[in-house]
Design a protein that fits this description.
Elements (H helix, E strand, L loop, with lengths): L1 H46 L6 H74 L10 H18 L2 E9 L2 H8 L1 H16 L7 E6 L2 E9 L2 H16 L2 E3 L2 E3 L3 E8 L6 H15 L6 E3 L10
Parallel strand pairs: 6-7
Antiparallel strand pairs: 1-3, 1-6, 2-3, 4-5
Length: 296
């Protein structure tokens, strides 16, 4: 496309030079006609005199013939100029048409590129999003956690990973069907998402498991308090077109750096704490309170 555009520019440049030469020729013809008209005026003034010597008369007639020849030649040159101008205009119109087509092609290429970019962005979004709940998926969460750990180490921040599991979810699927089970997952996802700040992240980890990343953690008590609120929010009765359910969940918490300094260890310890939480009244356990030895 660039090569075509360059060729058109060269053509236009050449046509401008050619048209310039034709117009210069046209100006010369005008000058010739102007001079001829002036000479003819002088001849007429001589011929209109009452008494004109024979020799002067002959010179005037000769000059008149010269003027006629100049005019005739100018007329012939002008005809050629007009032919060239017509040809130049035809070619110029053709080039302008080609240029317009090229602009259209460029616009179409630009539109195609924009569409491809949008599709690529959509594909990337799909690749990082859970299809059912619309939450970030495992890949997206791992990327965010890695970045969060870098920032936490750099600024001395605390960071919390919450592992969330819906209790007895299999029995919900078995009793009410997978369609209602999916609606339960979407409901849980929405309630978890509404419980955190914009800078935090909730992700569907897989199946009936969710994870949550809390950034810039200052007080551990605030994290456990938030987790308990999540448990209570999830447990609020929900009417699924006549089927009323109260969902129970369990949450395990691991806080950086006390409960682990890498993503793998934080996940492992949060998962361990979550299983310990299933047997508790609050259903929330901080890894350090689980009685388990810290991994790593």
């Amino acid at each position: 496309m660039k090569s075509k555009s360059k060729d058109l520019k060269k053509k236009i440049s050449a046509k401008r030079a050619s048209l310039g030469r034709v117009l210069k020729t046209n100006e010369k013809i005008k000058e010739t006609l102007k001079k001829a008209a002036s000479e003819l005026t002088l001849v007429n003034e001589v011929l209109n005199q009452d008494k004109v010597p024979v020799q002067v008369m002959k010179q005037a007639l000769t000059q008149n013939e010269d003027v006629e020849q100049k005019v005739e030649k100018a007329a012939g040159d002008l005809k050629l100029v007009n032919v060239k101008l017509a040809k130049e205009m035809t070619e110029r119109i053709a080039i302008e048409s080609e240029l317009a087509n090229t602009k259209t092609d460029l616009a179409e290429v630009r539109d195609d590129l924009l569409k491809s970019q949008v599709k690529e962005e959509e594909a990337q979004q799909i690749a990082l999003q859970d299809a059912l709940t619309g939450l970030p998926n495992r890949v997206s969460f791992e990327q965010r956690l890695d970045h969060g750990l870098i920032q936490a180490k750099r600024h001395g921040w605390g960071l919390a990973v919450l592992f969330i599991d819906i209790d007895k979810f299999k029995s919900i699927n078995d009793s009410y069907g997978h369609d209602l089970g999916d609606k339960v997952l979407v409901m849980v996802a929405n309630r978890l998402q509404s419980s955190v700040r914009d800078e935090d992240m909730v992700s569907r980890w897989g199946g009936d498991e969710f994870v949550c990343l809390l950034l810039e953690v200052k007080q551990e008590a605030e994290v456990t308090s938030l987790a308990e609120k999540m448990i209570n929010r999830i447990a609020e009765a929900c009417d699924f077109k006549g089927t009323v359910l109260s969902i129970k969940a369990s949450i395990g918490i691991a806080i950086y750096p006390a409960d682990g300094e890498t993503a793998d260890i934080l996940f492992k310890n949060a998962d361990t704490a979550m299983y310990k939480a299933k047997g508790t009244e609050t259903r929330v356990v901080l890894f350090r309170d689980s009685g388990e030895r810290r991994a790593g």
